[in-house]
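EI: anyone free to look at a 79-residue chain?
SC: sure, send it
EI:
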Amino acid sequence: MEFMRDALCGRKRLITNRDLAPVNVPRYKEFNAVALYKAGIADEELNVYLPDPPAKESSKVLNRRFLFNVSTAHIEPRR
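SC: here you go
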């Protein structure tokens, strides 16, 4: 719900399914969701599409496939 509130207030942006470029990335230790999320949060342009990190450590992690698809759409938008 926080992300939707931030999107409606203009602090975050939404991306449409049409703009996503599905990718299938091999399962390597280096390509994990936690590392990709940290890199995405550090990127100012990609940060607006990702939810803010939780205030306290949480075992809940974003879906790996979602993170790769959003980061790929950010790099090469479809038309």
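EI: The helical segments are 2-9, 33-42, 44-47, 64-75.
SC: 👍
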